[in-house]
Amino acid sequence: MKQLFALLLAAAPAVTFAAAAPNLDSVVITDVTIVDGTGAPARKGSVRIAEGRIVAVGDVIPGNSEIVIEGNGKTLAPGFIDTHSHHDFDIPKSPDMVAVTSQGVTTIIVGQDGTSQWPLREFYAKLEKDPIAVNLGSYSGHNTLREQGMGSARRAATDDDLARMSQLLEDDMAAGAFGLSTGLIYETGNFSTPAEVIALAKVSARLGGRYISHIRNEGFELMSALQEVIDIGRETGAPVQVSHIKVGVKKLWGTSDKVLKLLNDARASGVDITADIYPYTYWQSTMRVMFPNKVYDDRKGLEFMLKESTPPEGLHFSRYQPDPTIVGKSLAQVAKERNTNPVDLYLALMKLAIEYEKAHPNEERIESVIGESMREDDVIRLMTWEHTNICSDGVSIGHPRGHGTFPRVLGHYVRDKKAMTLEQGVYKMTGLAAKHLGLTDRGTIAEGQSADLVLFDPETIADRATLQNPTALSVGIEKVWVNGKLVYQDRRTTGLHPGQVVRAPKKTE
Known about the structure:
The protein is of the alpha/beta class. The protein folds into three domains: about 25-75 and about 440-495, Roll (Urease, subunit C, domain 1); about 80-285 and about 370-435, Metal-dependent hydrolases (TIM Barrel, Alpha-Beta Barrel), CATH 3.20.20.140; about 285-370, no CATH class. Helices cover about 30% and strands about 20% of the residues. It has helices at about 100, 120-130, 140-150, 160-175, 195-205, 220-235, 255-270, 300-310, 330-335, 340-360, 375-385, 400-415, 420-430, 430-435; strands at about 25-35, 45-50, 55-60, 65-70, 75-80, 80, 105-110, 135-140, 140, 180-185, 210-215, 240, 275, 280-285, 315-320, 365-370, 390, 455, 475-480, 485-490, 490-495. The strands form four sheets. Strands 1, 2, 3, 4, 5, 18, 19, 20 and 21 form a nine-stranded mixed sheet that branches. A six-stranded parallel sheet has the order 9-10-11-12-13-17, with helices on both faces. α12 packs antiparallel against α13. The longest helix is centred in the last third of the chain and has 18 residues, at about 340-360. The chain is globular.
């Protein structure tokens, strides 16, 4: 497998550093409105942190020798937990993790969509030697297991393949993985059978792991793809989560209630199924997802997808190494410039990308597209389901979700659209996210919890990242602490790297 931890080739935004505030053993954050991550009503108070932990909450009177940080009535919440992130790609270029901290995020969970760092134990050892600004945990990726255990196979696994993959998964679980992640829409996961996935999910479940999935189809076969996750939850008894849940084709727009009925019925039958979601109506992925049968010269399949899912004017190139001049443009725009039709152009660009990839085997992220295929009323309905937490699915390339997800929820959906209360929005980013990971020491403001905190202004918080400027920093995030250390203030990083490796809780008999 190409090492995901290779240096990013994309240019990273320039980062300036704020003067690091004093970080003594005891700090009191005074005059804040505490939204504690449980969903409880906001309340006025102060918070004392010491040695990386929250040690007092409420009517806290600072001592003479303590550092006092005036909150000026702003909102203090637990640091946001991104349960589905790809920001590990950013680490080599930016261990300050400005894309993450600028959103108020203090913990990221990577290894998503079936692809994870390998071997995970070595990745964790590197992070413990050279920490980053935020906490990081990971799943073990099914596609990575396939690549390491059976090569880049476009076929189902044999019994011997399963045995090798099971051992690799056990190694990742011993290193602290949260469980198994799949990307069943991607190669080579889409060639796996449900029986293969269940067999590996059982290995994870036996070791106390969870299961999270980019399902096989987020469009026309959405319901059957969701049923596969439900079946895995029922077969293994493990908690299961649907990654970045969406209704991704026009024909199914408005059917989010049917989706939620399926999930609620599964929960009522004993399956612990949950979801995460990002707050946008457009996705980002590889160009290959536009070919439903994974045959990359399939004209009819491509025509169907451009008609029923993502039209040429709504499909944007966010990365294309063979010809970077098309980046930022839509398929319709490039087709017009080249006096050709979108289908012929896309087929030619896909062929060129495959040839480029073969000629540059060590280069990561050859191509990427952003597609508009969702409707906002479905996004709101799925986001406000009581078992959905917020995620970014982000990396600092192309899609604005990589820099804007969490402020967008609090600004656009909480304050402006009033889709949920501030307390509910924060809960979905903190306490609920922690619950969906099995974490008990992060995600709420309470004595004994890790001092991961974000101070923000609910009146001004907003995302600024766009398709045209995807790395623009959000506004309204005042300060961010990770394990008691100030890592972000005044829209700049402090240069501190107090992040910890977050391992899954050990299974108890």
